[in-house]
Structure formats: structure tokens, C-alpha cells
Amino acid sequence: xxxxxxxxxxxxxxxxxxxxxxxxxxxxxxxxxxxxxxxxxxxxxxxxxxxxxxxxxxxxxxxxxxxxxxxxxxxxxxxxxxxxxxxxxxxxxxxxxxxxxxxxxxxxxxxxxxxxxxxxxxxxxxxxxxxxxxxxxxxxxxxxxxxxxxxxxxxxxxxxxxxxxxxxxxxxxxxxxxxxxxxxxxxxxxxxxxxxxxxxxxxxxxxxxxxxxxxxxxxxxxxxxxxxxxxxxxxxxxxxxxxxxxxxxxxxxxxxxxxxxxxxxxxxxxxxxxxxxxxxxxxxxxxxxxxxxxxxxxxxxxxxxxxxxxxxxxxxxxxxxxxxxxxxxxxxxxxxxxxxxxxxxxxxxxxxxxxxxxxxxxxxxxxxxxxxxxxxxxxxxxxxxxxxxxxxxxxxxxxxxxxxxxxxxxxxxxxxxxxxxxxxxxxxxxxxxxxxxxxxxxxxxxxxxxxxxxxx
Length: 456
Fold this sequence. Notes:
Layout: H1 2-20, H2 29-36, H3 40-43, H4 45-68, H5 70-90, H6 94-122, H7 128-154, H8 161-164, H9 166-180, H10 195-216, H11 221-244, H12 252-255, H13 258-288, H14 293-300, H15 302-317, H16 323-342, H17 350-377, H18 384-412, H19 417-438, H20 446-455
Helix pairs in contact: 1-6, 1-7, 1-9, 4-5, 4-6, 4-10, 4-18, 5-6, 5-9, 6-7, 6-18, 7-15, 7-17, 10-11, 10-18, 13-14, 13-17, 13-18, 13-19, 15-17, 16-17, 16-19, 17-18, 18-19
């Protein structure tokens, strides 16, 4: 247990850094733009460069973990992230800051690509759900901590300290990782990750992300058409090459496992719903309900705060109940909360908002840990890295799609966008619940099946 605790702390520190840095700079964008002499539109690249770097390299790093070992990829990602944080904190120009953020994004991709796989090797097979529950809790806390931490730092220091605070935490995570993270078996040492496939993977996901963002922001149709055409051509050749690979970067071998592919689809739909709601709600709370920035942040904390309680419990419940049933119940509760938020009266009290948010968070927490457990346990041990990469990719695809849909609704329905977004989010959550319930008829991974039989 002491060694396991040290390993969990090593993973928790790294994951929290990678998630927090996705949003920690948002609060400071106006200040960064003013000090570096750039426009508000250009300042968005401080955020987008980070997310884009993660998206284009995530699956390649997960495949690399299958070849050279997940521990090496994780520690390498931590080192790159920490060094890039030094670069961000010392950046004296917009170009150098964006370049450092790209490097930071690559480090975060390496961390995120294998973090859930490491849990598979840290925890005994019979306790995998509990490890996933802890990991889900760390992600939930980190997702809400970014703006709060940023506000605290900016109250006493300049924006470079937003990135400088990563350095001691990154060094602590590196120390813990070197000491406690377990070694893991690797597959055929003769196999290597194809750099051609890695480049095609980056172009495919980069063009996909750019096309979704471009469509939602009303970019020039001619330019958008060229981007979509390039996506279709490169994507076609990339997928064709991956179908021939024994160990593909885009893991079609895992997607042929029914419960794995259905769980990925459930995850994408759920994160679309979550992102739609979390982007729409601040506008609703401030513009319609009249709450301040600080009040809005405190109210919205109810969503991830309840996940901290529910996710570890769900991680234990997956040892007794089918993940499809738990996920279906949780996502139905989340959908109910979203529909209740969509129809909440304008004069509703803060308590009326909070209990609806708690229902959403509790439902999402009940889904997330069991779903992650099934995804990781259904993959062969030698393909754990690719399974972890697909889990993180599903989250990013869902979040990117949700944010793009929100931007599109702002354009199409400027007077009623938040209501439409919450209704749409409820629809995605219901769809995810239906897909999750469909998993009940599918066989569980052997580890979870044996656990259920023993409990019975």
C-alpha cells in the first residue's frame, strides 16, 4: 500500500497539471494580450495551441507507450511539460509563449495518453474500479480548479506565475514517478511506431479539430471546404493504412471489441453534453440571473464537487453491478438535471440551481468511473496504452464538439442560445444513457465478470 500510494500521487500530480493548464490561462487572456501587444482574437491561441497539440499527438504517444513502456512515456511527458512551463513563464513575446504552450501540450498529451493505463498496473485487477474512481476524482477537481487557482495567483502576482507554479509540482511528480511507478511489460520489441502514421494521425485530427472550429465560428466557406477536402483525403489514406497494421495508432483492433467501441461512443456523447452545459451555464447565470463572476464560479463548483464523492463510490460499485447499468442510470440522472436547468425559472434561488447541478454531477460521476474501468479492462494488457489514449481522445473529441456546438448556437440563436444548449446537452446525455443501457447485453471483460461471479 505505501508504494501504491506513492504511485497514485505521481499520477495524480501529473494528471492534475495537464488538466488544470487547459483552463488556467483563460482568466488572464486579456492581461496577456495587453502586455504582449496582441489582439483578443490572437490571445485565444494561448489556449488553442495547448489543446491542438494534445489532440494531434495523443494517440501516437499511447501507441508509443505500448512499444517502449508506459512509465517511460509518462515520465518523458512530465519532463517536457515541466521544461515547457519554464519556457512559458519566461516568454517575452507572443510567438515564444505559443511555442512553449505547444511543447507543454505535447507533454500533457504524453501524460494523458497513459495515465489510466498506469492505474491498471498500480492496482490489483480486482480493485481496478477503485483506482479509476480516484482518477476520475482528480480529473473532476482539476477541471474546476483552473480558474480558481488563476484568480488567486493573479491577485498577488503577474501572469507568468500561472505557469511557474507548475515547476515545483512537476519536479515533485517526477521524483515520485521515478521512485514508485511500476515497470510494465512491453509488446514485441521489434515493432516500432511508424512516423508516417504519426504524421497522418496528427494531420487527420488537426484538420478535424480545425474544421469543427471553423464551421462553428463561421469561417470563410471556401477555406473551410479546402480544409474538409484535405481532411477527407488524408483521413482516407490514414484509416486504410491503419486497417492493415497489427498494432495501429488508431486502434481498430480494440474498436472491434463490442463493449469497448460502445463505451467509447457513450463517453463521447456524455462529454459533448457536459461541455455544452458548462460553457452555456456561465452566460445564463451572469446574463439572465445576474450573478457576478465569483458567484457564478462558486455555484458551478457544485457539479465537479459532487463527483469527488460519487466517482470513488461508483468505482467500488462496478465490482458488483454491470457498468452499462450504472452508466445508464447515471446519465439518465444527468439528462434529467440538464432538462431541469433548461426550464428553470429566471427568478430561481441559488439553491434551486445548485441541487440541479448536483444531480448532473452525481449522474456523471456514477457513469465515469465504471465506464473507464470497462474501457481499460476490455483491452489486452499489451494494448493498454492505446486503450488509455482512446479514452482521453473520446473526452477531447466530446469536449471540442460540445464547445463548437455552443459557438454555433451563439450564431444561430443569439437570443435563446443557453436554453437551446441545455436542451441539446440533455438530448446527448439521454442518447449516451441509451447506448450505456445497450451494453448490459454485452459480456463484461473477464476481470470484472469474475468479480461479479464471486460477489454473487
